[in-house]
Write a sequence for this structure.
């Protein structure tokens, strides 16, 4: 009787370990896939976008000179002067702060760039050519005072992994 109970207990433990091991391996595979998505997005942002903010003192000076159009500048000239008051900076750090799914089963990634610009991107389209997710970020993004602008010339560099803070909490 003791021998049969011991064999039954051993079988239960073996089955439990097999199921638990399979679950653990699937979870590790999912975590690795999330890290890959974050790395790809960091490289995409680094190669395609720059941050900018406006020099507020220059903007105030331009606004004063413009005087609601009374000084003879055209709107195009005014906007060009405002564009010249921008201060551009490269992306030096990306921190992923949250990963969630939407009601339509798209993956939503929240991130912070250079500790000043917060945004999110919804990943719901997979490229038929590459099998990778397509990122939908506009030409100009942001609510201020920092904005994300598409680079005029795309680069093809790898963003240093030490400059990425990965979100490891799983999907919410």
């Amino acid at each position: 009787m003791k021998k049969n109970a011991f064999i039954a207990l051993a079988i239960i433990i073996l089955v439990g370990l097999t199921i638990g091991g399979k679950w653990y391996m699937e979870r590790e595979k999912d975590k690795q896939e999330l890290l890959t998505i974050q790395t790809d997005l960091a490289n995409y942002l680094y190669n395609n976008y720059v941050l900018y903010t406006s020099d507020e003192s220059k903007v105030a000076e331009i606004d004063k000179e413009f005087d609601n159009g009374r000084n003879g500048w055209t709107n195009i000239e005014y906007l060009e002067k405002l564009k010249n008051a921008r201060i551009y900076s490269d992306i030096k750090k990306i921190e992923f702060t949250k990963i969630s799914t939407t009601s339509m089963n798209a993956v939503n990634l929240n991130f912070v760039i250079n500790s000043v610009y917060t945004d999110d991107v919804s990943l719901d389209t997979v490229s038929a050519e590459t099998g990778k997710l397509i990122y939908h970020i506009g030409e100009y993004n942001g609510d201020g005072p920092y904005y994300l602008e598409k680079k005029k010339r795309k680069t093809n560099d790898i963003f240093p992994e030490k400059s990425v803070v990965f979100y490891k909490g799983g999907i919410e």
Summary: The first strand starts at residue 49 and ends at 54.
